[in-house]
Design brief:
258 residues; mainly alpha; 10 helices
Length: 258
């Protein structure tokens, strides 16, 4: 594949473009840490900067990786990471993400644009119709079974392919299905997204689809947002996850439907 073309900043302004991208990254990083849906913010901005959908999808993973490392470290220092759950789910999710990223590198941008639109529109409908299903745990915790591992692989495939909105089904799996608290489920989500993004980004980089300049600026903003989001969640408690989830569901759904 040919090297990624370096794009000009909006309106030819080398200051406004990076600032806007970093601010969007901070907002997306906080949203991803608290609930999910940060990529709904990032992808349109990267495409607006002139990147193709495929390159924007690949480049966004730099910010996701940076945000994930910062947020995971914050949760780890606070002793909030459910290490057992993370260890059980890491392998199937990374396996799925590798397949999803490989598929994304093989599809043409002319197909990716309508495909992304269709997937995100489907997410909008699901999130608007039944948002509560993602944040209501069962009465008793459940031990992961075959279905949970299969779902982890499928979520990994989706995350490796697109990433946008992957936090919602992960929280649904860990909280609604397996019975973890919103805080523990959300911390596990952040750590697992970080782990499988290592695999996905390597695949995209090997295919030459990453715009490193835009990705580096995005990473700075997402690190800030990731740390702030994690600290807010630890200070306020699990309730902030529920409200953040509902807010991001509404914003993401309305934005996609419009």
């Amino acid at each position: 594949m040919l090297p990624v073309e370096v794009v000009a900043w909006p309106l030819g302004d080398p200051i406004a473009g990076p600032i806007a991208l970093a601010l969007a990254g901070a907002l997306a990083g906080a949203a991803n840490t608290l609930a999910g849906g940060g990529s709904f913010i990032i992808l349109p901005i990267l495409i607006g900067l002139g990147l193709t959908p495929g390159v924007a999808n690949a480049t966004s993973r730099i910010g996701v990786l940076a945000h994930g490392s910062a947020a995971t470290l914050t949760f780890m220092r606070a002793g909030a990471l459910p290490s057992g759950l993370i260890l059980r789910m890491a392998a199937p999710m990374c396996f799925g993400a590798l397949g999803g990223a490989w598929l994304a590198t093989r599809l043409d941008d002319g197909l990716l644009r309508p495909l992304f639109g269709a997937v995100l529109l489907l997410w909008a409908v699901i999130l608007l119709v039944r948002p509560g299903r993602f944040i209501q745990p069962p009465a008793q915790p459940r031990i992961p079974g075959v279905l949970a591992y299969v779902l982890a692989v499928l979520i990994g495939v989706y995350g490796g392919f697109l990433q946008a909105g992957v936090g919602f089904p992960l929280v649904a799996l860990f909280v609604s299905m397996l019975g973890y608290t919103p805080l523990a489920g959300n911390a596990a989500k952040v750590a697992l997204v970080f782990l499988y993004t290592l695999v996905a980004l390597a695949m995209f980089a090997a295919s030459g689809e990453v715009a490193w300049r835009e990705g580096a600026i995005l990473a700075v903003g997402m690190i800030v947002g990731g740390v702030l989001g994690a600290k807010l969640q630890l200070r306020v408690g699990p309730g902030v996850v529920r409200w953040a989830m509902l807010v991001m569901v509404a914003i993401s759904g309305v934005a996609l439907l419009l």
